């Protein structure tokens, strides 16, 4: 077995051996229950000291990629023991650097941001060049910490059409919604403070809350959004600093809170004195005229902080979003933004401002909406077709994802097989808030998949699951 | 007296009255010790309820802008009681939004970033357009959280020429150096933890450390950089998590640590087990071939985190910088960057990468260096010329600022008069780390001033100080 080792590399040889074997296992070149070469054989074939091979095998065994049988040697573990995405960062880095990803046969049900062929590059390029000609160096000077005033005014005008009567002074431009979450965490969380969140929920928010060492309490999503009875039971005993929630097309379930629940939540925020952090990343993708009224528009008591992301409906790499805050928080928010990164890129703010002003943004959203509605309906039909395998835990009302439950099959095995067969999914653990058992659920998103890819993806999943029974039967007991 | 009130505005009338009068006082239209109109007179002249005027006068009095004499009415306070920059944010927002600032006669000794006519807009515009044509939507997709790989590789190649042999895997791209400081604060500071810092130092760093509730210990700058004896005395009794310092052309003193001190500091970081956070914002502006060796290049024990800012030498609004970290910190830094803002703007990273590759950056730095050396020498000559008024506390070896001490004059009065006469300075309080008395010192920066403006600025300051004696003499005791 040739391991392609490099004597010139700074990487120790045992690590090279380990990596080379790991790759073969993950690529399925070394299939489960295959016997690995004896230590001495592999050492001789690659001119290695046997102890180097022993060290590599030990590392593989530690990671449960191989197992030992006494007197018989080492074998490749069964697929379900092989964990793939070790952590979110790896996953993100992996997905993100698309120049380096092997996209052959890849069906990306994992990403909730549009494929970049949907980005309006030409229009945005025009906006950028217009800004550079108009503003010159000003576009690259420090910007106002709160955000470019003209952009804030445009946003304020837009918000009025959504019954959010906030002045541009109540708007903070951020370098993406994640930064808004980070700013809120800094302001509202000290170690051990109680906050509340939905289950399942967005992992990036969770990461930020955990970093501040919050005590995170999670409440289930129901068909009307977060379970308000559960929440109220808790609030009768305990205080929270804020609730983080996505009332419209929640990530990952696609659920929407009904108006009555929204009003009740607003009342609760007053009665139990907490802030509501309303994350709106996708309310534009409203295919069936749902009433996507925001909590902010119902808020008469300055209890709602509204966060707007453009990553899922426009271009994530622009790193632009905003928050609308109660006046009393103004100084805290601006100074926390200042100490976070001083201000957001001027060129991006100014170009986006112009793009909004030209009406190009509205055109873009209409286009995306039409396209994604087709994908939504197509995906829904396929889930229904394959109802033998999948349960639609909630029936989403808009947005770009479905939250599915795998029926009657080994979950880890399914996720792993999807991965090695080129279908990326996000299993429950990426949305898990308190290590609750989410019962073999996962998110399927269609932002980055064509209708054809959606069809193919479901067929691959079906084939995996049909094979699954057979494979489970032949698994040895070790 | 006409107050230009608007009945249509949402701003309450008493606030309008207050603002109008405040403006007249700050503009010196209402000079010190002038008697204000009687309440009823002003009310009649502007068709106001007298209680509105009373409320406005009270607010002015609270802010010590006016004072009352019993039985005689209200008077404008003496100038030295009138505080101008209430806080840094106000200042920053003020300076930053240059479209709205009254720049007539303004001499900006406050800013340490270049005026935007020095930004290489045409070259950078070409780089942006090249990137958009080459990469299309990829430029607006999420980027690798650690940073665009090609940019990190270029930086790594550059670092090797500075004896910093760090791989691109040890580099984290950040949205400006402030974000690097924020990331470090998040990782290394829990409430009450000890950290060390120079006095005077950069206020943005201080804001971030305070936000994390660090116990900040500050050590004086000497002619060889931070006072290592003082620091070592402290370390013999107490532990610090890190020292934040600027060893080359320190902000605001312009001082440089000599090589021997740098080596001693590195040894101390090992012996007393702490990290050194080395902030390098300006080592390129080296007019006299000083040995600007970085602490990172001397670091054999993985104790130095190096932060590079481009704001003072290139374009601050680009919001780009990087940090070089010891391998052991890799996971923490990348995941903290992730939860801060996921990734830095792809377009800016890619355009800057191309700009570096084209060699345009080196050309730009050479140009800036030549220009700033002239300003440096010119400013130094003027300080020497006006040595009756100013003491050069340190003789800087490079960079863009001088740290001056005002001799024999009322400091607050001087700062205030500079402001109203169109000369912006940054007084000690913006660099103060523990409310230490910095003895009437201030920073003068020439990044944003022509040679002619520098000359004019010093003349204005001289005139202010020559008048000063007279004015002090006529100040009434109230």
Provide a concise account of the structure shown.
Two copies of one chain form a homodimer. With 478 residues, chain A is an alpha/beta fold. Chain A has 16 helices and 16 strands.
CATH class of the largest domain in chain A: Alpha Beta
Fourth-tier CATH superfamily name of the largest domain in chain A: Type I PLP-dependent aspartate aminotransferase-like (Major domain)
Share of residues in helices of chain A? 40-55%
**What is the strand content of chain A?**
5-15%
Oligomerization status of the protein chains:
homodimer
Total strands of chain A: the figure is 16
Q: Which two chains touch over the largest interface? A: A-B, 68 and 68 residues
**Per CATH, what is the topology of the largest domain in chain A?**
Aspartate Aminotransferase, domain 2
Q: Report the total helices of chain A.
A: 16
What is the overall silhouette of chain A? globular
How does CATH name the architecture of the largest domain in chain A? 3-Layer(aba) Sandwich
Question: Structural class of chain A, please?
Answer: alpha/beta
For the record, the count of structural domains of chain A works out to 3
- What Rg of chain A do the Cα atoms give? 25 Å
Family (chains A, B): Belongs to the class-I pyridoxal-phosphate-dependent aminotransferase family. In the C-terminal section; belongs to the class-I pyridoxal-phosphate-dependent aminotransferase family.
Subunit structure (chains A, B): Homodimer.
GO molecular function, one term (chains A, B): transaminase activity
InterPro entries (chains A, B): Aminotransferase_I/II_large, HTH_trans_reg/aminotransferase, PyrdxlP-dep_Trfase, PyrdxlP-dep_Trfase_major, PyrdxlP-dep_Trfase_small, Tscrpt_reg_HTH_GntR, WH-like_DNA-bd_sf, WH_DNA-bd_sf
